[in-house]
Design a protein that fits this description.
The protein is of the alpha+beta class. Helix content is 22%, strand content 28%. The chain is built from 2 helices and 7 strands; from the N terminus they run E-E-E-E-H-E-H-E-E. A 5-stranded mixed β-sheet has the order 1-2-7-5-6, covered by helices on one side. A two-stranded antiparallel sheet has the order 3-4. Helix 2 links the parallel strand 5 and strand 6. The chain is globular and about 45 Å long. The relative contact order is 0.27.
Length: 144
C-alpha cells in the first residue's frame, strides 16, 4: 500500500484550505488519493473491477482527509468523533458497489480512531473528479 506522509495537512491543489475549523467542529476539503501533491491513482472506477482493486486509493484519500482534520488540532486535543463522511466515486456506468467502496474508508477510520471513527456517510457516484481521481473524500469531525 502507498503511504501518505504521517504529518501535516495535504497540500491544496487550488484556492482553498485543506480543512476549516469553527469552535469544536472541523470540516475538510475533498481529498483525493495524492502523495506530496501527486495523484497516486487515476481513472474512473470501472464496472468490471472489484472493490479490492480500488481499496488503496480509497484509504489514501481518507488518510489525507484525516490528516487535514488532525492538522487543526491544538496540543492536548484529539478528535472526539468523525460525524460525517462523503465519498465521491468517479464511476463508469454500470458500477454499483459505491457503498462497498465507502466501506474501505469506514474501516480505515474505525482502525485509526476506534468507535470515534464510526460515522454517518454518503457514497455518491459522479462523472469525474479533479485530476482524474477515482475517489474524493470529505470529513466532518468534532474535537475533544
Amino acid at each position: 500500500m502507498i503511504a501518505a506522509p504521517a504529518h501535516g495537512a495535504p497540500v491544496p491543489q487550488g484556492d482553498y484550505v485543506p480543512a476549516r475549523r469553527s469552535g469544536k467542529l472541523i470540516v475538510t476539503a475533498g481529498m483525493t488519493p495524492r502523495i506530496d501533491g501527486r495523484l497516486a491513482h487515476q481513472g474512473p472506477v470501472r464496472s468490471d473491477t472489484t472493490v479490492e482493486d480500488h481499496r488503496e486509493a480509497v484509504v489514501l484519500a481518507c488518510s489525507n482527509a484525516l490528516r487535514a482534520a488532525r492538522s487543526l488540532l491544538q496540543p492536548g486535543e484529539e478528535l472526539d468523533a468523525i460525524l460525517s463522511m462523503t465519498v465521491y466515486i468517479a464511476a463508469e456506468p454500470g458500477f454499483t458497489a459505491h457503498s462497498r467502496l465507502a466501506d474501505a474508508a469506514s474501516a480505515f477510520l474505525r482502525q485509526e480512531l476506534g468507535d470515534a471513527g464510526i460515522c454517518s456517510r454518503a457514497a455518491v457516484g459522479v462523472a469525474s473528479l479533479p485530476g482524474g481521481a477515482p475517489v474524493e473524500i470529505q470529513l466532518m469531525a468534532a474535537v475533544r
